[in-house]
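Good morning C.,

I know you're traveling, so I'll keep this short. The sequence:
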Amino acid sequence: MVEVALSARSLTKVYGGRRGQAQVNALNDVSLDLERGRTLGIVGESGCGKSTLARLLVGLEAPTSGSLAIDGQAVAMNERGARGSLARKIQLVFQDPFSSLDPRMTVEKALGEVLRVHDLHTDATDTRIGELLAMVGLTARFAARYPHELSGGQAQRVAVARALAVEPEILVLDEPTSALDVSVRAEIINLLVRIQDELGLSYLFISHDLSMVRHISDDIAVMYLGRVVESGRFDQVFVTPLHPYTSALADAIPVPDPEHERSRKAAGVSTVVVQGVAVSAGCPYAPRCALVQDRCRQTLPVLEEKADGHRVACFVALEAEG
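The tokens, ready to paste straight into the viewer:
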């Protein structure tokens, strides 16, 4: 039986709308499930709502509507103190480790502060800090360093250690490698995979880099303008994509085979994914879609199952044979 670590239903986040400001629907009716011990990759262009989703899930912001459950227990997301109740269950690792670490604190103080606030290992703080550093591949000598004395990869390892300090069940990883050198990204991904295996954690991995997502994710949810347009197992979504937007994302992944690249261009498949534009009705992808029909411009498609857990929000894909 599948165990669900995190379940979000109809999460919506609207900004603005007051004093003459136009409303911005950052998140629209997003529902997803994260299975225990697995990694759910959230992919999409910049501005599609990925980071907004991350902030809602960890309680940094409250949703306009929708619900969240962790371990089957509902989370009071709109109540004061919700962040505190979530902290021991779910932690966020930010994109830029230097902006998330206090420049005035050494690594030892940063980790010790987390342990103190959550009243953890108070009788063996130094020992626990050493264990956390070892867990992320750093030696004890890094404890005395300040953030500016760390490389990007080392700083991100400290950020991961700080998230692990509260012993969470779930990590939300918001573009954790995009601010790093290419040579360091694989090291951080391998570190995350090892930690997940050792601790049995569940990951929600957010990224626009599909080549990176493919190395860590078991399941995928593709977002476009605040909505999930396709979801399923990785081999379903990116080996046999159903939504035209997912196909465009998959085709944008660099390939080493020039012949494949030429044949792809000859087939008329765009390898450039441009920023989307908002639409007032119908499918938000309609202005960019080569398969668009009249109903696509008038009616919003909902996420429906095509086959064996593979879900898509596209009229054309749902009616296609096969």
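Safe travels,
E.
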